[in-house]
Amino acid sequence: MTIDSIRVPPRSASTAAGQDLLLLACAAFASAMSLRLCDSMLPALAREFQLSLGHAALVVTAAGVAYGCCQLLFGPLGDRYGKFRVLTWACLASTVGAGASAWSSGFQGLTLARACTGATTAALIPLSMAWIGDNVPLEQRQATLARFLSGQVIGLLSGQAAGGFFADHFGWRWGFVLLATIYLAVGVMLLHAMQRRPHLAQGGTSGQGGRMRSVIASRPARFVLVAVYCEALAAFGALAFAPSWLHQRFGLSLFHAGLAVATFGLGGLSYTLLARHWVARLGPRRLAASGGCLLGLAFAGLVLAPAWPIGMLACSLAGLGFYQLHNTLQTLATQMVPAARGTAVSLFASCFFLGQASGAAISGTLVDRLGAATLFGCAALLLPLVGAMVARHLRVGTAR
Q1: pLDDT single digits (tens) 274-303
Q2: Which domain holds residue 187?
Q3: What are the residues whose beta carbons fall under 8 Å from the beta carbon of 158, sequence distance 6 or more?
Q4: Which residue among 6, 150, 218, 396 has its CA within the 20 to 30 Å range from the CA of 257?
Q5: Count of the separate structural domains present in the chain
Q6: Would you say 382 and 298 are in contact if contact means Cβ atoms under 8 Å apart?
Q7: Is the pTM of this model over 0.70?
Q8: Which of 235, 264, 265 is closest to 153 using CA atoms?
Q9: What is the CATH number of the domain that holds 241?
């Protein structure tokens, strides 16, 4: 069965229990909030540590690089010892990195703490997706993943807004105190669920050595990995500087600039709420192609916006387009190599967050040298191309 043949039935019959899916969505919330918390803080961090905006963005890069690299560890661990078990302990471990970020005494210490947080939180979203892939039939999976994604979207929205709020009113360190509290609460709930329902902690079998090679050897899998890397590089590399752009261009406070960019999450949430109907009506090919086009329009809109409400509208449009494209790629990822799903989805997430990290680094250099308008213009050109290539990949796969 190809992804393009998916048609979601009127009533979902997902085999993943609603309570378990809610807990996984909470874990995705914590992970997404963590990775976007620093975006709106960048001007405040640059001022406190006397750095350029591009240099301050190293805190974003450090978390993304650690997140991406550690997928290579957590994927096989999840396949071997149980996806739910591994992500539970990783969530609890993330409390330490978040707390260390709050009490770091210098920029190097903060960067290291962010890297540690990125390393441990790396397990949460990909292993949750792989768990859904194991427990939800393919014909229901894209809609179920979209429901799960609502936690990630709300976390992204909350991270953008909370980072600016704490930087403006209480100090950026309190943002990490809140993050540590969330990690601890979600981790305890996951642990309690695992203790009450021991089957959640079940692992796989031994003999994981060939799993990574089986994913890399698959040509369709390689395409999906490259596509999600390019998507993340262009979309989140640019998005990391959207709060600073609105702050500098329109004089918004960091809190209000963060709120404006957080409408990216509202656009994504509108997709997750309607995903079952959109998947059935449009199909994955049209979702991917139109998502790329909406992203291109959104970043062009940020450059041309005459006032901040138009910039906010562009961010919301970017969220809608991104999740149309990304949800399609996620569903492809869960079916790349079903026998090594944890490893495959973790490689997918690795490419996604390595794309974010390298995007932040490249974007920081581009912003320092050429300005944010050039950065947004590049994203507006690249993202529609990514969407078109994904749509073509689906069309070729269907033809076969």
Answers
A1: 777 777 777 778 888 988 999 999 999 888
A2: 17-399
A3: 29, 33, 262, 265
A4: 150
A5: 1
A6: no
A7: no
A8: 265
A9: 1.20.1250.20
